[in-house]
Amino acid sequence: MHAQQPQQTPENTATLAEQVRQAKQDILTVLFEIDHITLQENPRIEADYAVKIGYLENEVLEARIAMRRAQRKVTLARAQANNGLAVDESGIEKQLDTELEDWYNKLSTAVANYYQQVEARCSLAPMSLADSEELKRLFRQLAKRLHPDINPNQTDEEAALFALAQMAYQAGDLNTLRSLVSTLGPGTDEPDPTDELQLSALLTVLQAQLQVHEADLAAVKEAFPYCFKEKLADPQWVANKAQELQATKDEYLQIAAKSNRVFAELKNKMEGGTER
Q1: Is 263 exposed, middle or buried (0-12, 13-18, 19+ CB in 10 A)?
Q2: Which residues of the chain have pLDDT under 70?
Q3: Which of 15, 67, 163, 178 is in Cβ range 3.0-4.6 Å of 256 for a Cys bridge?
Q4: How far apart are CA 191 and CA 203, in angstroms?
Q5: Model pTM?
């Protein structure tokens, strides 16, 4: 015997239709939050991090390189001395330039990124509450029409328009968002099925999609720079972190200075012929 299909009723159909509508709204809300964090919040948080913490991290890296160079310099000088050779400081310096090239490139990249973040921070003009709310409202309208995760059959033109919308949202460009909304017009939502079984199947798909997007949102919030949002807003945390980094920098520089003194003593002994 075949299992009897559950009887379809207007009440069940209406309930499923409402659940489908709500699931679509929930998906749009999560996708909007991901874009809002990525395009609006993260650039500000990253710039804030650079100004409050990043510059010190760069100084720590520079001090660490100085320490490694000084320690390695002593090692190479001792090797020459043990072989009865005079300490060739010029040759050692050239060798260290080569050995530490990757470290210097890393430092150069970090410093360039710092200046980029500072420049970005200076260009972030504050918006009024009304403009900020309008910016969000307009982008949400465009996301509903153009976001590829909601509109899988997106055309190339629609993909290009959404890329423009994202750029405008990140830049806080209200005029561009207004023009895009006006150009697209009100649009019409694709009608949902009216059959109860089809609605049930659609709801299952939407709920699965919502779980995926919620996981994506959680990952964005756990990643840099958003994970530092609350910490950077806490002056005590910032002060403690700065103190910690300064202490590390001082430690590296002290070790570097000690190694440089050892190198100078070793070189002088070898030049005087008194190395034992």
Answers
A1: buried
A2: 1-8, 125, 273-276
A3: 67
A4: 14
A5: 0.85
